[in-house]
Amino acid sequence: MRRRTRARRLGLGVALFALAGAMSGCDAATVQSILDDHADTATTGEVNSADNGASIPLGGGKTLLMFNDAYLGPLEPDRERPLNSKLVNNAVVVWNSNGNTTNTYIGPGETAQFKPADPANFYWLTNGVKDGSTIRFLAQERVKPVPPRRDFPLVANVVISVPVSNLDATPSVARLPIGSHGATWGEGILSWNGDWYVYGAVQDGLAHRTLLARAPQASLASLSSWRYYQPSAGTWSMSQDAAGALLSSSGSHVPHMLHPTVNGSEIVSLASSSVFDRAFRWASSATPWGVVTVGGNAYAPPESGQACGSGGTRIVYSVHPHDQSDPAESLWSYSTTCWAPTPGTSPGRYAPDYRPRMINLDLADAPTPCPELGEATTRSFVRASYEDMPRRTPARAEADYWTTEIAAKGHCRSRMIAQLARDGDYVGNLVDEAYQITLSRAPARAARDSRAGRIIDGTDTSTDLYASLLSSGEFFANAGSTDRGFVTALYLRLLGATPSAGDLSFWVGRTGAVGREVVAREIYQSPDSRTRRANALAEAYLGRRFTAGRELDYWRARLGEASNNDVTVTRDLVNTAEYLSRAEVRFPLA
Questions:
Q1: CA 427: distance to chain centroid?
Q2: CA angle, corner 269, sides to 266 and 275, nearest 5?
Q3: What DSSP assignment string belongs to 243-310?
Q4: Could you tell me which of 150, 153, 158 has the C-alpha nearest to residue 142?
Q5: Are strands 101-105 and 6-7 parallel, antiparallel or unpaired?
Q6: Which class for 335: exposed (0-12), middle (13-18), buried (19 or more C-beta within 10 A)?
Q7: In b/e form, how buried is each residue of 104-129, taking b as 16+ CB within 10 angstroms?
Q8: Of 4, 135, 161, 437, which is most buried with the most CB atoms under 10 A?
Q9: Which letter, b or e, does each residue of 563-589 get, where b requires 16 or more Cβ atoms within 10 Å of its Cβ?
């Protein structure tokens, strides 16, 4: 049943909103003001507070908003809900920026707009899209709680279809059994290359795992057309039970629900872990099925953890992207409610505690995802990385494995690079070079294995290795067993020059004051030494020296950071686009 159209007079903020277009490129505070004004002045049959708030742009300045567990009717002067406020499990509101009008859609007798065939069940709307001339709502069918039971088990996921032109039309419903995962589908939905991609969530304690399904556009309601992604194989299955959790760049599952939007040629998401989230994190991927790069915090909702009601606590949940036409001011929402689950506590009736909150975020703050690579490019990259780091040709099984991981499954190149940086051949070569540079000899086998093992297990870094060898008794003896000889040898080995009289005097004095190990480390980490090392790494992995100025300064500074060393900078260089392009030239597929 469509409630009466209600015109709103909301001043300059709404005028700006109307000019921008419904839910499009808007200041979050302006949108919030519009939604709050509508709720605060609700009349009979209109929503005064609810959760969800996912939106569907309908075109022509119209936006559809979907709500769950919506309270209806006028509020008291203090914005509290009357004790007799009607609650419906779902409702739809269409806002038209042309004239600032709202239409509320609920069922006859102030009931839910959409109801299952089984009267013992109800629908929560999860998400939705405009699919041609049809609205497709993704919803959860759940069992109504019957006292003293307070739970509401999930029965099925459903796709509810109604014409855009008549939201009161009798809907068609397609039911998807929940399967072994018990997943809820629709935490996110987006259009990508002619298909709908639907994100599902599986609860994992207080965290979640994200699953992925796809269906051709115009076939979202044909559940036999759905295919479910298997990240472990990089393939799609007809079986929902075969769906696996999306993976992060580290190779583990992403312990979040992902709420995605398309930003140019990549997917950007806000990631949430549970209804008790203190902050939402950035996440991104090159494709809907690609490996997910999880970034830092995007937003910390101020409502999370606030006291409310009588002994209650506010929680946040249900994140949704809205129109993203201005990536620097992208519009998102999340729901809040007052949670009072223990005896003697009460959530209260203050309506603003139970409404979606609008925020603006800059999508440029999201992490850069791993780029999607084809098989040929990946094979060239794998070959080059093995030839340059462990200095051997990869075995067929190694090449096939990493090509599948990167090209088929979408893993970042950095995952393979990180493993090669712990490869025994690569680290062993590093130890050999350190001995030649510092002591002009090869290490004994036992010493080589011991030194390499300490780097592989993270006990030492390459900087620690050089500092140890340069301050050793053997190096000191080779330098004539004097501090002057020691400092001179350090300069010759690390800087390719002899020290000036002033430098020699300074470092000899410092050696007497702090010892050989500190001095060896300081000269090894000096700007001149880092310049030589940076250029040596550039020649080894990029086939050139760094350009003097900003480029050289950047990489030299990286080597000076406490968290970096020759190995970490090697990893960074092998992960550059320049290295990848060069690999294709060096090792083209026949």
A1: 32
A2: 170
A3: ----BBTTSSBP-SEEEEEEETTEEEEEEE-STB-S-EEEEEESSTTSPBEEEEEEE--TTTT-EETB
A4: 153
A5: antiparallel
A6: buried
A7: bbbbeebebbbbbeeeebbbbbbbbb
A8: 135
A9: ebbbbbbbbbbbbeeebbebbeeebee
Domain spans, the chain: 1-110, 114-245, 375-586
pLDDT value, residue 83: 92
What is the spatial order of strands in the sheet that 207-216 belongs to?
A: 184-192, 195-204, 207-216, 227-230, 235-237
Comparing 550 with 257, the larger pLDDT belongs to 550
The residue type of 71 is: Y
- C-alpha 291/C-alpha 372 separation (Å) is 9
Task: Round to whole Å and give the CA distance between 362 and 282.
Answer: 11
Q: Which residues fall within 8 angstroms of residue 343, CB to CB, at 6 or more apart?
A: none
Mean pLDDT of the 404-427 span = 91
Are 399 and 314 a contacting pair, CB within 8 Å? no
Mean pLDDT of all residues in 480-489: 98
Query: Any idea which architecture 375-586 has in CATH?
Result: Orthogonal Bundle (1.10)
pLDDT, residue 589, reads 83
Q: State how far the Cα of 162 lies from the Cα of 169, in Å rounded to an integer.
A: 6
What's this model's pTM, rounded to 2 decimal places?
Answer: 0.78
The residue assigned the tokens 């075109």 is 59
Cα of 4 vs its chain's centroid, Å: 42
Strands (E), 1-61: 6-7, 47-59
Question: What tokens were used for 535?
Answer: 């250029």
**Residue written as tokens 């936006």?**
63
Q: Alpha carbon 437 to chain centroid distance?
A: 43
- Strands 172-177 and 184-192 come out as unpaired
Q: Which of 237, 238, 248 is nearest to 415 (CA)?
A: 248
Please give the DSSP secondary-structure letter assigned to residue 342.
Answer: S
Quick check: 414 and 575 in contact, CB under 8 A? Answer: yes
Coil, strand or helix: which one is 151?
A: coil
Q: Which of 291, 237, 287, 246 has its CA nearest to residue 410?
A: 291
132: CB partners within 8 A, 6+ apart: 217, 218
Residue the block writes with tokens 């067993």? 481
DSSP state of 406: I
> Side chain identity at 459, as an amino acid letter?
T
Task: State the pLDDT at residue 178.
Answer: 85
Cβ contact 72:42 at 8 Å: yes
Residue 344 buriedness (CB in 10 A; 0-12 / 13-18 / 19+): exposed
Q: How big is the chain, counted in residues? A: 590
* 459 DSSP assignment: S
**Rounded Cα–Cα distance for residues 225 and 243 (Å):** 15
Q: What is the rounded CA–CA span in Å between residue 56 and residue 49? A: 19
What's residue 590's pLDDT? 61
Question: What is the pLDDT, as a whole number, of residue 14?
Answer: 35
Helix (H) or strand (E) holding 37: helix 28-40
Percentage of the chain beyond pLDDT 70 is: 95
186's enclosing H/E stretch is strand 184-192
